[in-house]
Amino acid sequence: MNAEAEPSRRPLLVVDGANVVGSVPDGWWRDRRGAAERLRDRLAAHGGPADGPFPGPYEIVLVVEGRARGVGSVPGVRVEDAPGSGDDLIAELARGARGRPCLVITADRELRRRVEETGAHCAGPRSLPDG
Known about the structure:
Distance between the termini: 31 Å
Strand content: 15-25%
Structural class: alpha/beta
Mean pLDDT: 89
Number of strands: 5
Radius of gyration: 13 Å
Oligomer: single chain
């Protein structure tokens, strides 16, 4: 099988949903779940960064927390509800990549430090394609 057909062989893209949604002051705080759904749909339609450190397509995991929990997965984007801290789940996913290329989308400095210690790369929210 080729990497396009088998998600576990694709580079892993982990998106910090709260951080990416919160990077644009568009009223997301009134409907956190709706904002997470719009981000999920944007990722499904456009994928990861066009100029990221790894060639796509990516296996995309969107991590949500708090009032954004309960957003369903769609083809191309797996949504993971963080039982507690989204940062902890993101760091766990990066550790679990085990040598597989991994890119985390977040602007959170502490989270970037944590995931870079696992060998993952990081990019900011603006690296994602616009909706």
